[in-house]
Write a structure and sequence with these properties.
Layout (H helix, E strand, L loop, with lengths): L10 H18 L15 H21 L18 H18 L17 H22 L7 H12 L17 E9 L2 E9 L4 E6 L8 E6 H8 L11 E4 L2 H12 L1
Parallel strand pairs: 1-4
Antiparallel strand pairs: 1-2, 2-3, 4-5
Length: 257
């Protein structure tokens, strides 16, 4: 398990958050489906179905070490139209897989530097909390994200950027440095992102780069939600200094889809 700025939690903490946020997610999904504003075209039933497939797919990865490329590769699941039962089945599958497989055992992940079961503790905790927010936004009752988990969420999503390689969908990418600042009650973490038309790099920093074209700051929860596209810069918790935010948002959209 790796982080850029030393934000990672223990496996036990990830499992605690995974369980807690799953319970909040399940509680938020209403009996009568409603639209999910942060996932255009989805209802809350679609969200539950998505989470079921994510959990089952990653359970297959953890158990076999191989990528699940189609439904035939998923862990066994009930043939049911009850999306909550389906999601619960998937959740049980991934938590069992994480519990019985050694964290250091090699397995597939999309991150070239972390090809182990360990990767999926962190990924599943963050996948669950962001989609828990989606469900809560849909019904208008949002629960705060744990500060340490949110801070680590900022680190995780920024670490996706270097994996993109190039940016054919986004014009005029070669715009230099973006500094991201996530504030907590104990201080702040800073990440510098260096963009060219061919690559992006991310590194931890002590303070925003003086050469940054764009500095985006906010509390850890707000930054996590902003980087995942769940809030925008109109939220009073987010501060934007400099230029290029629209291009940066396009880059983040490419990275997180």
């Amino acid at each position: 398990m790796r982080s850029v700025a030393g934000t990672e939690l223990s496996r036990e903490q990830y499992l605690i958050h995974l369980n807690a946020d799953y319970q909040l997610l399940a509680a938020a999904i209403p009996e009568t489906p409603v639209e999910v504003p942060s996932c255009p075209g989805w209802s809350t039933n679609d969200l539950a179905k998505h989470m079921a497939h994510v959990y089952l797919g990653q359970a297959f990865v953890v158990e076999t070490g191989s990528q699940a490329e189609n439904k035939e590769h998923l862990a066994p699941y009930p043939r049911t139209e009850d999306f909550m039962e389906f999601m619960s089945w998937g959740f049980d599958a991934i938590t069992k897989a994480l519990d019985i497989n050694r964290p250091e055992r090699p397995t597939w992940s999309w991150h070239h530097s972390d090809q182990s079961v360990d990767f999926w503790f962190r990924r599943m905790a963050h996948e669950t909390v962001i989609h828990r927010i989606d469900a809560e936004q849909a019904v208008g009752a949002i629960t705060k994200i744990d500060e340490a988990l949110a801070l680590d969420g900022v680190d995780e999503v920024l670490d996706f950027l270097p994996l993109m390689g190039s940016w054919p969908e986004v014009p005029n990418v070669d715009f230099g440095i973006v500094s991201i600042v996530a504030k907590t009650k104990n201080g702040s973490k800073v990440w510098d992102l260096h963009f060219t038309d061919k690559a992006a790099t991310v590194s931890a920093a002590e303070k925003p780069n003086s050469a940054a074209r764009l500095v985006i700051s906010g509390d850890a929860e707000a930054m996590d939600l902003y980087l995942w596209g769940r809030i925008d810069s109109s939220d009073p918790r987010i501060s934007i200094k400099g230029e290029g935010e629209e291009t940066f948002k396009q880059l983040m959209q490419v990275a997180v889809l």
